[in-house]
Amino acid sequence: MTIGIDMMGGDYAPLEAVKGVQQYLASHSIPSSLVLIGDKTAIEKLLDEHELASAYVQVVHAEQVIDMHEHPTKALKEKQQSSIAIGFHLLASGKMDAFISAGNTGAMLVGALFSIKVLEGVIRPAISTIVPKADGGTGLLLDVGLNADCKPEQLNQFAIMGSVYAQLILEIENPKVGLINVGEEEGKGNILAQAAYPLLKENKHINFIGNIEGRDVLTGKADVMVCEGFTGNVILKMAESLFEIGQAKKIKDEFFERFNFENYGGTPVLGVSKPVIIGHGISGAKAFMNMIKLAQTMIKKNVMQKMNEELS
Amino acid sequence: MTIGIDMMGGDYAPLEAVKGVQQYLASHSIPSSLVLIGDKTAIEKLLDEHELASAYVQVVHAEQVIDMHEHPTKALKEKQQSSIAIGFHLLASGKMDAFISAGNTGAMLVGALFSIKVLEGVIRPAISTIVPKADGGTGLLLDVGLNADCKPEQLNQFAIMGSVYAQLILEIENPKVGLINVGEEEGKGNILAQAAYPLLKENKHINFIGNIEGRDVLTGKADVMVCEGFTGNVILKMAESLFEIGQAKKIKDEFFERFNFENYGGTPVLGVSKPVIIGHGISGAKAFMNMIKLAQTMIKKNVMQKMNEELS
Q: Which fold is adopted by the domain A1-122+271-302?
């Protein structure tokens, strides 16, 4: 099992990525093989400093970096020697089984969409986020930004992909799927939600519990929450701001601490054939470690294959 | 100035409505005239018990009540003697200047849409909500549910109506208008947001500051936040749930207390010719008092007329 990491992505690259690798290796007696992609000199210097010579770690040089604000498609095309472009090349050619980056989100999405295959029948991949629930549980919300406009059938696919992820990664048995909407009753909502409801209702691959509302997002009514990427992105960023507000107001409550994205590491792209995990730009060591662990679990549990089965 | 109140609407009717009237009268030496609509016997008994004989209070009997879960259009049509139907009749015929209810939201919306006129040029009215901001300020979000699908021009009208409301009622000078979106840059978003942006940018009646994201909703970047009613409704209900979560977790912070809808009372319907204020089903005395005060201020400050001017 080989996991690739873009060492140049994120605001604290490559130091925090190296520290994350260190934390990962320290906590695993038989780790996965790691391919660290980026400026070889800088990375090897940091590996030395952190005494990280390991048979499980290999450095692949990338002489370019895609900056956070570059145009994704243009940058990927023009910077073939960037850490992200090389990462996707290694992933697509089978030299790696998963790829992680906290770099340019758009470039990671474009790379995931065009370098590796989407699962058969998937209209468009989605990105998801973990949502801490007030009851202590954990929910999954998708799409959170890859598909600002959706067709009803896409929401139906998100429900399947989310259910598989919730089962295998969040370890929720028979996860309850809710359609994010403006009211509880069938027939409520915008045109999209009205059209998606019957598809979800008839979908034998999921445990659909009906519509859920904004007030249910943080309270645990559903395990998998489905919506188009516009609403999902607004919810995601509003939830993230709760952690910051809680910090700023010095609210000492474990619930708010759980909105700290570092606990989860990154956002997997769902609907593609291999694990691609996108980290937050401000990812620190803990986030990197958790992304490596997530990639490892996704590979071990055959998440993509299971999705493929359920989707077909 | 005459303000009508549906005494039969809400979970604690008519007692909490009577208590709200009492609080209102106690805090105003020269109050507005109040028309209390509902079961005359029950209301007069409560008025006696609360020693509320007042020249400013008149009771209008309504022998029917529209329940919370009745179908709005059907109920309004069939229950012509309900407190909501009578209220809109009195409002439309000029016997009242504003109408308040914590009853069936759908019936209130249908009544507002079809009994009284929309302002000239308004495609569809909208409902708004106050959003407490972490910096202590107050924002306005609209639409929060009346228009689950919108055309770009509607968002442009929401921006104007919201700006007038923010100026006159929230007393924010030159309110900053933000378009809720998935990214900051122009060109981001779903088809609707992409099309609305240039309209807002060229709108001379508002102070447009560009796109705002989910993380900006609670932090005060914009004073008036514009979106279609689907996303707005999800945001509203998610924000409301914060108050409940804060209560349940015994988080003592003034910010969370401010999400208590009772502080604001109700949601005005914007874009119609007279103030119509819809309260929460669980409105208590304080909410009723605040709705009466809001109706009074909206009449005094000619909010509807000002909107009419800015929209044309």
A: Isopropylmalate Dehydrogenase (3.40.718)
Q: Which CATH class is domain B123-260?
A: alpha beta
3-state secondary structure B52-116: CCCCCEEEEECCECCCCCCCHHHHHHHCCCEHHHHHHHHHHCCCCCEEEECCCHHHHHHHHHHCC
Radius of gyration for the alpha carbons in chain B, expressed in angstroms and rounded: 19
pLDDT in tens, chain B (312 residues): 999 999 999 999 999 999 999 999 999 999 999 999 999 999 999 999 999 989 999 999 999 999 988 999 999 999 999 999 999 999 999 999 999 999 998 899 999 999 998 999 999 999 999 888 888 889 999 999 899 999 999 999 999 999 999 999 999 999 999 999 999 999 999 999 999 999 999 999 999 999 999 999 998 899 999 999 999 999 999 988 887 887 787 777 777 777 777 777 788 999 999 999 999 888 999 999 999 999 999 999 999 999 999 998
CATH of domain B1-121+271-302: 3.40.718.10
- Interchain CB distance below 8 Å, A182 and B214: no
Q: Domain locations in chain A? A: 1-122+271-302, 123-270
Closest C-alpha among B212, B111, B120, B214 to residue B161: B120
Q: Which pTM was predicted?
A: 0.91
Give the separation between CA A36 and CA A38, rounded to whole angstroms: 7
Contacts of A231 in chain B (CB under 8 A): 230-231, 234
At CB < 8 Å, which residues of chain A contact B? 134, 145, 148-149, 180, 182, 189-191, 193, 213-219, 227-231, 233-242, 244-245, 248-249, 251, 253, 255
Rg for chain A, CA atoms, rounded: 19
For domain A123-270, the CATH class is alpha beta
**Smallest CA–CA separation between B280 and chain A, in Å?**
14
Mutate to test the interface with B, among A124, A238, A243, A251 (most CBs of B within 10 A): A238
Which residues in chain A have Cβ-Cβ distances shorter than 8 Å to B222?
none
Tokens of A123: 């209209």
